[in-house]
Amino acid sequence: MHTKVTLFVQCLVDSIYPRVGEAMVEVFRRLKVPLEYPADQTCCGQPAFNAGYAKEARAAARRFVRIFESAEAIVCPSGSCVHMVRHHYPELFADESIDYRMRVKAVGNRCYEFSEYLTDVLGVVNIGASFPAKVSYHDSCHLLRGLGIGEQPRTLLRHVEGLQLVEMNDSDVCCGFGGTFSVNYPEISTAMVDDKIDNIVATGADYVTGCDVSCLMNIEGRLSRRNTKVKVVHIAEILASRAGHNDE
Amino acid sequence: MDEKGAFLATIREALGYPGEEVRTAGECRRLFDPGDDGDIFDRITYRTHVEKQSLLKLMMENAVPLNLGVHPVRSFAAAARTIGDIVSAARPEFGDIRQIIQHDDDDIARLQLWKKFAGQAVTVHTSYQADMAVREKAIASYVGITAPRWAVADSATIVEITGPGRPRSTSLLPSVHIALLRIEHLLADLGEAYALLRKNPPQESVVFISGPSKTADIEAHMVHGAHGPREMHLVVIDERMTADRNYQGSGLFPAE
Amino acid sequence: MSDVEKSAYRRDARRGIDDECLQSGLQKIQNRFGKGAMHYWAETADDGLRDRVKKSRMETLENLDVVLSMLADNIEAAGGHVYYARTAEDAVDYCRRVAVKNEVKSVVKGKSMTSAEIGLDAVLEAEGMEVTETDLGEFIIQLGEDRPSHIIAPCIHLDRQRIGRLFQEKLDIPYSEEPPELTQAARRALRKILLEADMGITGCNFAVAETGKISLVSNEGNIRMSTTMPRIHLALMGIERVAATMSDHQGMLQLLTRGAALQKLSTYVSFVGGPRQPGDPDGPEEFHLVMIDNGRSRILADEEFREVLACIRCGACLNICPVYGKIGGHAYNSPYPGPIGAVVSPLLFGINRYADLCKGESLCGACLDVCPVRIDLPRMLLALRRKLAYGDPAWQTTRHKWLEAMGFRLWRTLIASGPAYRLALRCAGLLQKPFISKSGMIKKMAGPASAWTRDRDLPPLASEPFSRRWKKKYSQAAKATSSEVDNG
Fold first, then answer.
1. What was the ipTM of the complex prediction?
2. Domain residues for B211?
């Protein structure tokens, strides 16, 4: 019997890409993993933290700990959020009591990124998904460098029926999102995402995928503006697909 | 408190110590712990000649990308011939007069280069300590010949230590630098050179040289020959070189 | 003034991005040396070396007073002079005094970022002295009255054609764009100057306290010439650029040449310190080491930032940084560009003054991965951002963007309450409707988010957030699965 998974969908998924959350649910349902979703969740605090607003981030973090600490396993479709909870929450609460700090650490230990949870915890690599298309994978910075997750998504993608995984040049170079960086330094951010898109297009891929909606939103936004025909899809959506799927 | 005292006091305070109390090396012994180089010295001391010959082969491979010419020879006479060839083949860069300058060193003296070039239009200077005009002679020379203390196989490096009769300019100002070494002084890696320098720290200046000068400042395009010598050779004397250990395997230079 | 013009960083970043010549140079350097360094660390067995060197750097910093004192004693014992410069002005004034006292007419310089930091050249030139940069890249910069854009390859932003034209004009030689010919031209032009100069000024890669020598690393030989031929050698040294022992030096040297240019060793590593010894026909008559604080002791005092002083100035972080790789070194407007410059420049010269350097990168973390001594630059950038967010009197920092601060206060209120957050989403969902174009994406936003829609489309908020979909579709199913599992 599988451990119950508590979904931490991420504020961007909740508000802009709910289909990513639905795809996660579909995958877990197929794997017969019991789920719960604390409806009160909002944000892990990362946008504020990265911009330097630690006090505001702490408020979000405290709330997160309160909402999620009774969970056995917290799974999130975003590497950067998981990195926030695992690595930065202990920093945010460094001045708290040892008890509280241990609670925070425990929450971090039980918080997983989606692809990581599937391969490393559930030990599953084949979800029975089917997605016949040429797909390239973008390595998000916090996922790869912060959490060391790079093989897991690729393993899952390689087991998807009909999917042809094509590696792009510089898949691990930052897409230029960086939170408020993208709106405070747009010329630099755009130049970086343009390089990323040139690399994607060079692979001839139909889709680009990744494990972090922040990056994908950035890439999708620029692809749309450039009128480039590559489509953007989160890995959960690929894994939720079955034979005869329709593009959403 | 004088300038030095005030300056160091600021640093002490930055580290959380009281400014006025001068701290000594004894309080951070571990930082200055010399460590034990015993293993390294044993390795150097007990290295066999055959092992050194292998190191020489390795150095020759490592020298290729650095544009460093390595010439193994069997004798001092052969070394003199090789050096003679290099000098004859090279052309002076600044002006026409052929002058070469060599360190005041016993091994170099054995080459008797003045004999080799007697009758040719090549003047051989020696950088004697007493010679007041050494600087001018180095500037005027197109070849400089030195005898480094050691060479290091792994990085194809020579280690030169300045001293009376062994000025820095000899390996710096001429267009061509030739270094003469006996294989007995060949080390495996930089760690061994450091250990030897730690054992007897020289008062004088030391320089590690790994090939002729170069630069890649223009479009990251590598050019050999910047301000230092643009051509460099290392002549290594292995008096125990035999027919089957003549470095021909490395395909780089024929044995003498 | 537009937003872009108000920020020198953004304005110069834009210029860098549009400069094709710069982009080409940066790509070359990043592809070869940035990726090469990462590859090297991944392949090399001795990862322990990086940790050992980091440890010894930190230990040296934690005992810097003792180490510097030993260095000074050893230099003075060999007949050299040591000057303790608290500020840039102190350092510059001392150099000027030494040069004037010795009737120096001509100065040759080895590459030294510290000399740029303190603004030395202009002062010497004002005394009527000829100051010539001898490192090829710096020489080209000086001829072109330009600024270096990389700490190891200063003129990477210039192509061979530009350099060819520059040499044709300034050195009066026929036009050539071949690097070997251009290098040869510089060699000839500089040889005379190097041989006749009165004073050589260099930086110092690392001094070694226990031997009283400074080490200088180069490939060209210009530094050897600058420290051997002139009668005075003056070396500028930031107080952190010192190793306690030769053992420490060994590790640092290996990491420096690998991190900088993937070399086992640079062509020349010289150890000098003190005037010429008896029987040494070369070598200066006078040796001066100028130890420079200029704000470093303040960094040392702050344990959050002390680590940044462990830097060995290899430039690997510049070679891997995707931001630097787009904007180039000039955009930083500091003698120290790139990721290391983004931390060190604010700390040395003012956090508010260099606010854009603190905030103008995406925190991707590549610099931490590539740094030979594992300096956690992202951590320190976050710390600097916190100071800009709330102000910090200890660092004379005031709040940076009050509008942004207000924005996050509002954000906090919204995310702190489930109902408030959901209500805000509903409102935003309604307000966005006029902005949604036919394609389904938002093409133009108002307010601060308009910077996003300048170059990118924005997906609209979903008609139904996930939380509502869950309530409608899944919570029953989830309960069913749970009971299925419990019973099955």
1. 0.95
2. 47-250
